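FORM 7B - TANDEM STRUCTURE REPORT

SECTION 1: FIRST PROTEIN
SEQUENCE AND TOKENS:
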Amino acid sequence: MTRTAFLFPGQGSQSVGMGRDLVDALPDAKARFDQADELLGFPLSATMADGPDDALKATEMAQPALFLHAFALFEALRAAGAPLPDAVAGHSLGEYTALVAAGALPFEAGLRLVRRRGEEMARAGEIEPGAMAAVVGLTPEALHKVLDQAVDAGIVQAANFNAPGQIVVSGSVAGVERAMVLAKEAGAKLVKALVVSGAFHSPLMRHAQLGLAEALDAAPFSDAEIPVYTNVTAAPETDGETLRGLLLDQLTSPVRWTELIERMTADGITRFVEIGPG
């Protein structure tokens, strides 16, 4: 029997023009985009459609844009007859879309939360500037040895376990730069600095936790209708209060995406559908 998971992408997937074909083709999608503009108090949909690119890349803009686009696609699939999936997951920001799709959070509350999250993360990056880098070709064990040495230069930790052999590190500029040098010496096939506004999923996001905690506390969470495999635990969760707390932990914890997908597979998921730009 086919068991399906819907996956929702995170920041970095955005591109100018995203959603334009959806809005042109489906009145319900246009209504959802119009609702988002009204709720936020600015024309998010116009920035998504026409840019400029720098504006859409800004953390506080990219996050609600990706959330809106992915959820509108999810609704379009459901309206076309797609059944509710057996499970959902989202990469970092995408976890918010997954929660709304699973019925744990209303769309309106989710949109406001991702806008606040983006604002708080951008602000944290200004308070404590940081860096991120992708490392390809090292095992988690080998990378952990690198990070154990690199912390002498500054804060640095694994931030995203994206795929076997592809891990992103995050932390202070000095810590990440030292980790990049050591990773190359350890035999990494590729080490590449990422263009980001802060050290996401590292202790440097602690400043973002303060503002987001207030917003999360006020949000109307309920138990999910289907399992949500979370970034922090890589395990299925349905309890609304647990999901609320994990969103706060997520800011400073690694995204355990590889382990999450492996757990889904072990739990019998056989089909994975990514719902987002492209």
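SECTION 2: SECOND PROTEIN
SEQUENCE AND TOKENS:
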Amino acid sequence: MNARLAVTLKNSPQARFLIVGSMTVVVEYVVFYILYVGLNWNLFLANSLSFAVGLSMSFMSNRLWAFKKDEFERPAHHQAMIYAALAVTNLVVNNLIVGGLKSAGLDPRIGKVAAIAVIAVWNFFVYKHIIFKEKH
């Protein structure tokens, strides 16, 4: 890894969030694709399970690396509770986007990508300013 990239990763939670998010997107989409296309599972079951896999990976990676702090404002169990509440909201919105776009005639595989993008934007702000906020 070159020095410039190392400095960017060290000083930029946005860059680390994008890396974690990119890895999460790949894992979540592969699980969705395998379940929905490969195994012909119900759309909402495949979407929900793939979302849960991505969510678990995302929380741990964001807490331990992307938004790592010397000390967080909230203890880990409070972070997990807020994260879980956000996850429920994200899951509902994710299913509404995927299902709504399918009803509008869009392929659910494209709807899944759209849902991931929308959720990623607001998650960054919630993670940075609420869930993984540094203690002052």
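SECTION 3: OBSERVATIONS ON SECOND PROTEIN
Residues 55 and 113 are 15 Å apart (CA to CA).
The two ends are 32 Å apart (CA to CA).

SECTION 4: SIGNATURE
Preparer initials: ____
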